[in-house]
Fold this sequence. Notes:
By secondary structure, the protein is mostly beta strands. It has helices at 2-23, 26-36, 51-54, 69-82; strands at residues 42-48, 58-66, 88-94, 97-103, 107-114, 117-125, 132-133, 137-140, 148-149, 152-155, 159-164, 167-170, 174-179, 182-185, 189-217, 223-231, 238-240, 243-255, 258-269, 272-275, 280-287, 293-301, 304-312, 320-327, 330-331, 336-347, 355-368, 371-383, 398-403, 406-419. The chain has 3 domains: 21-125, Protein Transport Mog1p, Chain A (3-Layer(aba) Sandwich), CATH 3.40.1000; 132-275, no CATH class; 280-419, Beta Barrel (Porin). The model is unreliable at 1-22, 39-43 and 50-54 (pLDDT under 50).
Amino acid sequence: MKNRNLLIATVLLLAGNLVTGVYAQENIRAMIKNSENTGVTETDIVRKNYPIIKKINRSTTGIKLMASPDLEQQFEEAFRQDSENAIHAIEQRKDGKVYMFYRFNSSTYSYTKSNDVINIIESIETKHRIGLYTFFVNVVPDDFHFPLIGFINTAIGSHQGLQAGFINTTLLDFYGAQIGFVNSTFNDHTGFQHGYVNTTINELAGLQMGFVNTAGFAPRKGSQIGFVNAVRKDIKGVQVGFVNMTAGSVRGSQFGFVNYADTVTGVPIGFLSIVRKGGYRALEVSVNEWYPVNLSFKIGVPKLYTFVQGGYNADFEKRFGLGFGMGSMLSIGKRLYFNPEISSMQPISKDNKTQISSFAGNLRYQIAPHLQIAAGPSLSHIYSDNDSYLYKPKYHIINHKIDPKNQLVLGFRAAISVNF
């Protein structure tokens, strides 16, 4: 009798779960079905199984509709009616944009309204998988609620908490920390990735720390620290590494030897910072107290740029000099800028150990959209291991020899540059 009662209870429980799974999102499903069958508001429907998701029988449907007040109200009401059955729910409203995301047992639904367009994304897993947990190889189904600790960890779907191993892989969303040699999240990652190679295919909200870090985009305080950092779209945060690349916009900063971005709201700091839109690039011809002929290439953003500079002086034993520097253009008027620059130059020679370090306080004026002139005083310190290499400046305001190896010169410089 006890076994029979237990069997009946089990059957009823399974039936209840099945009914709950079917009806948990009945209002959302009804609105989606209605949109698919309506020719008035529907503009585009795309159905496809993504290559990675196809292996776990998860289908994704994207629907794009022209927004109307009635349609917006019906969809938002459908989401709210089903909200109590959702495992995880997000609702955001800002500047006329609406974003709603609900996760159920084996499906997720997102609703986005922006610029008079409604986007609905439905993702459904049609078949459940049996997990494997051996502490060496771990393969678990969607929304497995325990940490994955082993040599190879794979979540067939979404996972949250901790993944610690040599290779950690999540085929959908991950919330928590992935710690290993290779960490991969094939959709959104919220939390921390630490390893040699870290990859988030879609949205990163958190921190990636490793040798190579890549992400689709990071709109919510996503940051990367590593040797190579790359973001396919936009990032709101910081990139710190030897090479930092963002194909979209950076709302934050980049610190590295080489920085690249489409646009930057902030300041990239590095030896070479390339900003495709709104960046600063210029060729400049200048004269200073040491080299009467100089050619410089400047690149970065107006607030902070770097430059390489070559100089020529026929009076020097070593006539050619090469240097590097950085500067900033601080607006003090409609076309007028305070333009401080620091630089270091030395004669091109194998045995010459002369170093000229300078600070210039220029005023820069824009005389045309792509043409600027600059002039101002400069203070230079020249050091040489050999007294004979303490060069005489071409002209000066003050020339003070501190000792046989050090010299201090107050001079003046002027320049004309073409921006492009």
